[in-house]
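Weekly structure sync, notes
Attendees: PL (lead), two postdocs, one rotation student
Agenda item 3: pending single-chain targets
PL asked that the sequence for the first pending target be pasted directly into the notes so everyone works from the same version. It is reproduced below exactly as submitted, 212 residues in total.
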Amino acid sequence: MIEVVKEGKTPKNIRQIGQVSGNQKVYIEDYVITYLKQVPSPEETMRVIILYGKKEIMGDELCWFVNGAVGAEKDFFMEKTVIDQESWQRVNEMAGRFFPELTVLGWAIVGNESTKEMEEQILRTQKQFFRQDQKLYFEYNAEEKEEYVYLYEKGKMRQQTGYYIYYERNECMQNYMVSLRAAERHPEEFESDRATHQFREVAGVKKQEIHR
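Predicted structure, written out during the meeting:
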């Protein structure tokens, strides 16, 4: 699959984190950062999040713009990978609902503990679930208040020295975060809505089969 990267413009309102260098630059929208830095509950320990957005060329630089994020619903971590097929499918459903015009750029892990003992799982997850052009990886340690940005290149996670936070109107991310709060307040309504959506999908498939 050939990736199409458009010529773009640098956002007007940005804040630099760390020392940004090299010909690849990462821009993460403020609402996404707010969502990424929500402290996991004691029961979660760690949270896996898929990052969405677009890539644009500015001069001789390739810029990654992250303006969407979807949490992978998971109660435990697999032994070999950090994500499984079922949670990936649920993420795709949510992304189709809230971020239909964005593409997967990579993923993130947010937690209260270090991920040093999970290096093999992280690399295996990157190889199994993400294409070569989906190589952005973000990590936030809520306990230490430390954040890291990586690009997966040549089989390794290469840490970037810095990135940008940018500010713009982001209704899609706002709507997603509101839906999560609503689901926490009224979980029975959220499950009912999901069941209705799944029923409609199955009914649609059956109608197509009958038509054929």
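Discussion points:
- Residues 189-212 have pLDDT under 50 and may be disordered.
- The radius of gyration is 18 Å.
Action: rotation student to compare against the earlier draft before next sync.
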